[in-house]
Amino acid sequence: MSDLKPSVYAVFATYAKVAWKRPWLLVVAIICAVGGEAASVIGPLYLRDFINILSGSTPTSSVIHALIITLAALGGVQLVGWLFTRGLDFSSAYVELRSMRDLYNEAFDKLMRHSHEFFVSNFTGTLTRRVTRYSRAFEAMLDYIVYNFIPAVAFTIGTVAVLALQSFWLGIAILVWAIVFTTLQVYLVQRLQPLRLATNEADSALTGATSDAVLNHSAVTTFASLSHERTALDLAVSRWTGTSLRSWTANMRMTAYLSLFNIAITIGIFGGAIYYWSVGILTVGDFMLIQVYVLGLLNRIWSIGRNMRNLYSSLAEATEMLEIIERPLDIVDKQGAKPIVVSEGAVTFDRVHFAYKEGSDILADFNLTIAAREKVALVGPSGAGKSTITKLLLRLYDISGGSITIDGQDIRDVTQESVRKAIAFVPQEPALFHRSLRENIRYGCPDATDEEVREAAREAHCLEFIERYPDGFDTLVGERGVKLSGGERQRVAIARAILKDAPILVLDEATSSLDSESEALIQDALAKLMEGKTVIVIAHRLSTIMKMDHIVVMEHGRVALSGTHQELLAQESNLYKKLWEIQAGGFIAD
Questions:
Q1: What pLDDT, on a 0 to 100 scale, did the predictor assign at position 414?
Q2: What are the φ and ψ backbone dihedral angles of 366, each rounded to 5 degrees?
Q3: pLDDT tens-place string over residues 344-372
Q4: What pLDDT is attached to residue 5?
Q5: Which of 74-83, 149-158, 245-254, 485-494 is the least confident region?
Q6: 260-269 pLDDT tens trace
Q7: Which residues pair with 361 in a beta bridge?
Q8: What is the rounded CA–CA span in Å between residue 518 and residue 508?
Q9: From CA 189, how far away is CA 204, in angstroms rounded?
Q10: What pLDDT is attached to residue 548?
Q11: How confident is the model at residue 435 (pLDDT cuts 50, 70, 90)?
Q12: Confidence band, pLDDT 50/70/90 cuts, at residue 518
């Protein structure tokens, strides 16, 4: 991650743009918020008159009539306030939900556009939580503005205006108190912001550590490492506890200071009201009116600080996602890039240079030409660069030198999506979703019919195990396909590739998880899958690539040897021949 983290104000500005996509609803929400508070200011005026009538009159018919009229007016004002509140609820809910949907979509889209390396370097659980926090923080912000800040400002203005008509200095005192108290809260909340950021970072780290252990539950169990994981988690919990305790302590200290300040000011205001009452400037009803206003104002201004602390915490959490959104993408399409057009499927690596880390070349001046519809196998020791070639072809990483072309088109000059659509990739560890078998196979072609899905499953020899399940194709496979065996997951991945029917096929140890019986069943499916396609096969088991058109032996990121199986064996002692002799006892029948 970048050291330059977005500020809370950057998040606020981003949210403001999203909210303003629905200006009329936003304006309605603001009007309703102000209207509701106007009713809260006007209502106590009728209550004051009601009390003044009661305190200075005997129960005659005219007095009762005046009381009824005053009570009716009070009820009417409260009903108007109720209508404004309902309007605020409706309009704000509509703005919030639609805007949160936009933010969810934006966060997910920007997150998923980051590179393979980005996801390798970050915890899945932490990233998922950041997406959720990003949209939830908008709800906190809008609620704060329309349910707290705007009402507090409107109520303060109305209260000061009404009280100033009774006593100019009383109105000024209320105004000064409101300004000073609010300013003090804002200042203290901002002073505590670094502690909140530290707490959020510790919380994200704790989520990531927990997620990492849960996702690798099988490894924790089989290695009997629960105590080790518990110790590691306890360290993360301790960091979170420490930062949280410091944040909470600072909050409690701030609340204590503000409470003392508020007690002093409130006593002063009521003392002044008593004085004005004693000299006849204020009536009993006026005294009650001041009490209602001061308590109402106290509640609203106090809520400004309390809710601002919650808002800052939410916006601080959102900065983590905004950082990801604003982070430059490692792999980007050129401006104006068009989809690749693959008619033949010829692939060329021309003087390719690549390193995962600077100064440690994986490929150096690498050259490889694969003719259209040619079937090429890449073999060699681990670390030779075989899998790296497939990642570069899929443009999961960008090369640092040279070029990779498909049918003469540099893959950096066309859209990434079109390149990946032109390639069917079956990795060593297939990525399955926690969805049904049908959905996982159909992922190769979302528009495929159920019959086409079934036919692809039949060709990949998936029906043998699918039909054993009571729910058949509707069986859920579990997270990452955990309910299936390694061979079954591999066959589902191959069925997916069959359904995709891309002109270029890449198999990265695609049969490594199969037992001998399963491998024998699937070899004919792979043969059909390879027909009419350009094929790149990475294999350690040389028995699976004997019939390839071309075998490329790699060593230290370079092509050491190339030729057919027979040609390579006919040569004098070489790396391929050595690998062949090591594996000679373990081949399946030809």
A1: 94
A2: -85, 130
A3: 999 999 999 998 876 577 888 899 999 99
A4: 58
A5: 245-254
A6: 777 777 777 7
A7: 355
A8: 17
A9: 22
A10: 85
A11: confident
A12: low
* Sheet bearing 558-563, strands edge to edge: 423-426, 504-508, 534-538, 375-379, 550-555, 558-563
Strand, coil or helix: what is 414? strand
SS (H, E, C) 418-447: HHHHCEEEECCCCCCCCCEHHHHHHCCCCC
Residues in the chain: 590
Confidence (pLDDT) at 517: 65
- Can you tell me the distance from the alpha carbon of 73 to that of 331, in angstroms, rounded to the nearest whole number? 66
Q: What is the maximum span of the chain, computed from C-alpha positions, in angstroms?
A: 125
Angle between helices 124-144 and 61-112 in degrees, nearest 10? 150
Torsion of the alpha carbons at 5, 11, 17 and 22, rounded to the nearest 10: 150
Binned at pLDDT 50, 70 and 90, residue 585 comes out as very low
Predicted TM-score of the model (pTM): 0.69
Which ranges of 443-510 would DSSP assign to H, the alpha helix? Answer: 450-459, 463-466, 486-500
Q: How far apart are CA 96 and CA 314, in angstroms?
A: 15
Q: How do residues 373-398 score in pLDDT, each as one tens digit?
A: 999 999 888 788 888 899 999 998 89
Beta strands in 227-269 (DSSP E): none
CA distances from 214 to 219, 229, 235, 236, 535 (A): 10, 10, 17, 15, 37
Looking at residue 328, its pLDDT comes to 85
d(CA 208, CA 195): 20
- The closest alpha carbon to 395, from 376, 369, 421, 373, belongs to 421
8 Å CB contact between 393 and 411 = yes
Mean pLDDT of the chain: 82
Q: What percentage of the chain has pLDDT greater than the value 90?
A: 17
Question: What whole-number distance in Å separates Cα of residue 135 and Cα of residue 126?
Answer: 15
- The one-letter code for the residue type at 246 is R
Query: Of 85, 103, 77, which is closest to residue 16 (Cα–Cα)?
Result: 103
The angle subtended at Cα 544 by Cα 369 and Cα 464, nearest 5°, is 125
What is the distance in angstroms between the CA of the first residue and the CA of the last residue of the chain?
Answer: 51
Q: Which residue from 559, 485, 550, 542 is spatially nearest to 518, judged by alpha carbons?
A: 485
- Per-residue HEC secondary structure of 345-374 comes to CCEEEEEEEEEEECCEEEEEEEEEEECCCC
Provide the pLDDT for residue 529. Answer: 78
Hey, what domains does the chain have and what are their CATH numbers?
Answer: 8-326 (1.20.1560.10), 336-422+534-590 (3.40.50.300)
Radius of gyration of the chain (CA): 35
Report the alpha-carbon distance of residue 299 to residue 18 in Å, rounded: 30
169-172 contact pairs (CB < 8 A, 24+):
169/272, 170/269, 170/272, 170/273, 170/276, 170/290
20-54 core/surface letters (b: 16 or more CB in 10 A; e: else): eebeebbebbbebbbbbbbbbbbbbbbbbbbbbbe
Overall average pLDDT of the 326-349 stretch:
90
Could you tell me the two tokens for 252?
């409690």
